[in-house]
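Dissemination and training. As part of the outreach component of the grant, students in the summer workshop were shown how a complex can be specified as a set of sequence lines and then modelled as a single object. The example used during the hands-on session is reproduced here so that future cohorts can follow it. Participants entered these lines:
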Amino acid sequence: MKSALRWVAAIAVLSAAAFFMSDYHNDVYRKLMLWVALALGYNFLFGVCGQVSFSHFAFYGIGAYSIVILLFQAHLPLPVAIVCGLVLCVVFALVVAIPSTRLEGFYLALATLALGQLFIVVLNEGGSITGGNGGIANYRLPDIFGVRIRGPWYTAVIATLLVGTLALLWRLDHSWFGRACRAVRDNAEAAAAMGVDVARVKVIAFTLTAVLAGIAGMVYAFVDNTVNPPIFGIENAFLLLFMVIVGGAGRHAGAVIGAVLLFLLPFWLSPVVGHHQALVFGVLVVAAILFQPRGLIGLWDRFSRSRS
Amino acid sequence: MGPILQVEKLTKRFGGLTAVDRLDFEVRGGEILGVIGPNGAGKSTTFNLIAGAYGASEGDIRFAGESIAGLSPHRIAARGVMRTFQHNRPFAGMPVIDNVLVGAHTRFAARLWSVVLGTSSHEEARMRVRAEELVQFVGLGEFARADVGTLSFGQGRLLEIARALAGEPKLILLDEPAAGLTPAETARLAEIIRGVAARGIAVLLIEHDMHFLLPLAHRVVVLNFGAKIADGLPDEIRANRAVMDAYLGAATN
Amino acid sequence: MQDFLELAVGAAASGCVYGLLALAYLLMIRPTGIINFAVGEWAMVASFGGFLLLSRYEWPYPLGMAAILAFMLVLGWATERITVRPLVEKGAPLLAPILALLGMLVVFREAISVSFPPDPHPVPFPFGLGRLEWGPFGGSYQSFFIIATTLLVFIGVWLFFERTVAGKSFEAVALHRRAAALMGINLSRVTALSFAAGAGIAGLAGLLVSPNISAHYLMGIPLAIQGFTALVIGGVGRVEGALLGGLLLAFAEQMTVRYAPVPSGFAQGVPLLLLMVFLLLRPTGLLRARA
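and obtained this result:
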């Protein structure tokens, strides 16, 4: 119960901050929180469970596109659309997760990369359903029970999503399931000998994190009120991977650090290096991997160890 | 009480090579059965067959009266058969205590939704206490929170055993547990193994080191070219001509 | 049938380009286990080199091509030296250099992106735009040039591995790193050479394909995927597999575009679907390595 209070307090603090920000800052803040939520989920899949997947971002897209299509093309009421969107995410996740258990390491990475790309192709060729290359825009979140959720209130929704994601993953991590995931990551054969059902663990981890990404996607759809293919493409899939690596794979704090840093970096670089920022960015990522393969959280560990 | 493990006409062929040839033996609870034989005799293969890493070509393996041949390793572990590995296979990304807790995986009852809601913390605490006891039992008490990377080779061997014990097995398979240990560590190991058997757990032990094995085991099975060539008390095996012949040319330390 | 023959040369040329990319991957994967996704960007860099030297500065084609390939060899060697060697020496897990190379992918692409405007840049055809009829097959000069060059490269590489001592030591490293090191084979030299060769071959692929599609800073990733799919189809074990995989992929693409009742944009989906299918069903590829 004590821990539940901590999470609620976190939501309150993160949400309150939104009310003291301008619209522009609110927009940046929202996107930052969404990236952190995605990074936390991806970190669990990649860092804790050791599954190298490039399709995580595709599930973000599936969530976003499905809520928009279900609401504004199928004209379903919001609660129904949300439920259907979730079901779609679960179904797609299972369809991907179950065959994925047969693949290891690089093969898995490649297959999920191809899947992510295939998703973009489908979006681009989806005609009037997906809006093709241009995507879908000019819609708005419908009122919920007559209440219009806008501005900082919507930011509060995102804060709740973020904290909820962290709480969920934290609990899973510090349980037999988290240990089973790490065991699968470190030595799948030994894990099986200890009684871990490796395939089942992988499927659960994959599906769970995919659904979390899907939910984040559904929430994202109403941040810019536009969805289009490039947002969910390989660039961002790489960025997500870099966030987790640079921050420190396997640690929630690492995911947060990595996400915050790499999300805000372009904002800081841009005034300094102009449109060379992506190049500087790439160089920084490579440097981070070369000099601190354990991620920036490794530096923090060393710092705190040297103090004690 | 019947034997906990019964191996009947167990055979494993890899292409044209018969690695295990119509093997028969049994183990009872609380008994230490040693499996010895020269290199390539089929000891590890037998282990892997029992643990479910390989499927048998012919024959049956019965545990607690039920056939486990053909089951996958994690199901066999869930039934109460735990194993160690010849080359240490710790989970490198976790501290020692967590490694042992993974061994206890099949003993956790909490469902996932219970984990998510945070209602399973009692079980987690209880299991942790039990894991700490096991870590103490094998003599790694002060290393419980340490990174497995800091353990010496000998300590890693002990971790393997603690981890396997965490699963509350009725049968434990030890794959050359004394390999690479110092004499002091070896003596410690023998004590631990006797302690395990004293708890009523059946111990199936592969070993090369006869000086270690013969005083420790209650019974010994000798393999050569995949087949059993002797089965009896350690003293009988010591005097057995066929066994000595089999070892001629193979190193006996 | 007539249809097919007309397609055949063009498809074969595409297949050769994929095959070259697959070969580039293979040369780096075999001795090190490292999958270098940046091969697509290497192809892209070379095609921009082609634009620069051949279109803008109008160097004679053979000279320009040689200069570009030489540059690519150095680039490959430098990439290995800077991003791979330090990680391998530090004993980092295999994933680390792969991720670092992914970072280099971004670096290469952005370096080009800031140096040139974003539109496609033309690269000249070495033999002009004419067509050649060869028996029942017809195709552009460029297509035949691509096929001929690719065959030369593959024959050369195959001979290198089969007939030379250096090639055999390469194989030795591929089969068992530690044993090879114990036998005195210089591991880091083999790795450096494999990266240099990989870059050279990827660069060649870029140079060959760019007259048709123009140099563009986003061309790297699709090429990287097609190359890798070709590799997975053909199998990592044999050099010939790379070419076989490339040809199969190209023909599958062309057939889909021509005959399948789906919008042409879906042609991009063909390598992706094939990749997933092969990874699931036959990850070792069609050709087995020689024992």
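The mean pLDDT of chain A is 87. Students were then asked to discuss how this feature might be tested experimentally.
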